[in-house]
């Protein structure tokens, strides 16, 4: 079973690496990083490089797509080559999924029109402008349509565990969870806009401006 994770300039690292760490634990699943071209792709802050081992054209029929987010998705929503790859791949996938603002690319490709979906909290208006219906949930799935979307960054781990359950079974998902020792006990209750204080939300917005 082949999972394709696209890489692009200014992707968010954990959006891609979180699901990768879950999925590659299962022996029946192979993961490949794909991109416009083979070679290193830098993350959104430029500090981390990850290698795309195949081009989009070389992986035209993956079993699963996991599209990560990042500020670079704002360019991809107008990249017809990427959008057509998403549309074409989705015709054959068992599931087409996204993490964070990767949902913008799925929406721009027409896959989320009229569907409830999730994304990072800062991208909700843009997502809805592309025809999707935002809901503030960590993971949103439409199994008949073979679509699953995850909210910001760390939620991709949750989505990937659910994906393993759907593809292989619950025991496999729980084994992957144990292997990565994913047992969240965060020191702060500030992981969503509903929980964070106004001061924390303002500080986060300021940090985002420095990254743009």
Structure write-up:
Helix content is 36%, strand content 20%. It has helices spanning 13-23, 73-76, 80-90, 102-108, 124-129, 155-167, 170-179, 198-211; strands at 2-6, 30-35, 39-42, 49-52, 54-55, 64-67, 95-99, 116-117, 133-134, 139-142, 147-150. The strands form 3 sheets. The protein has a 7-stranded mixed beta sheet with strand order 5-2-1-6-7-11-10, with helices on both faces. The protein has a two-stranded antiparallel ribbon with strand order 3-4. It has a two-stranded parallel sheet with strand order 8-9. A hairpin with a 4-residue loop joins strand 10 (139-142) and strand 11. Helix 6 (155-167) runs antiparallel to helix 7. The N and C termini lie far apart (36 Å). The mean pLDDT is 97. InterPro entries: Class_I_gatase-like, DJ-1/PfpI, INH-QAR. This is DJ-1/PfpI family protein. Residues 3-165 form the DJ-1/PfpI domain. Pfam families: DJ-1_PfpI.
Topology, pairings included?
Layout: E1 2-6, H1 13-23, E2 30-35, E3 39-42, E4 49-52, E5 54-55, E6 64-67, H2 73-76, H3 80-90, E7 95-99, H4 102-108, E8 116-117, H5 124-129, E9 133-134, E10 139-142, E11 147-150, H6 155-167, H7 170-179, H8 198-211
Parallel strand pairs: 1-2, 1-6, 2-5, 6-7, 7-11, 8-9
Antiparallel strand pairs: 3-4, 10-11
Helix pairs in contact: 1-6, 6-7
Pfam family, one: DJ-1_PfpI
GO biological process, one term: regulation of DNA-templated transcription
Domain DJ-1/PfpI: 3-165
């Amino acid at each position: 079973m082949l999972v394709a994770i696209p890489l692009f300039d200014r992707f968010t690292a954990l959006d891609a690496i979180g699901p990768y760490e879950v999925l590659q634990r299962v022996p029946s699943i192979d993961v490949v990083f794909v991109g416009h071209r083979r070679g290193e792709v830098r993350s959104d802050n430029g500090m981390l490089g990850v290698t795309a081992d195949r081009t989009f054209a070389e992986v035209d029929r993956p079993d699963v797509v996991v599209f990560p987010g990042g500020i670079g998705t704002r360019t991809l929503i107008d990249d017809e080559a990427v959008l057509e790859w998403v549309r074409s791949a989705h015709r054959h996938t068992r599931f087409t999924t996204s993490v964070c603002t990767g949902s913008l690319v799925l929406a721009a490709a027409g896959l989320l029109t009229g569907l409830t979906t999730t994304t990072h909290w800062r991208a909700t208006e843009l997502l809805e402008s592309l025809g999707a219906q935002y809901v503030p949930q960590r993971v949103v799935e439409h199994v008949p349509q073979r679509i699953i979307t995850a909210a910001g960054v760390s939620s991709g781990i949750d989505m990937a565990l659910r994906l393993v359950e759907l593809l292989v079974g619950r025991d496999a998902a729980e084994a992957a969870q144990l292997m990565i020792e994913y047992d969240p006990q965060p020191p702060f209750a500030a992981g969503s806009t509903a929980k964070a204080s106004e001061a924390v939300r303002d500080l986060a917005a300021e940090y985002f401006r420095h990254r743009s």
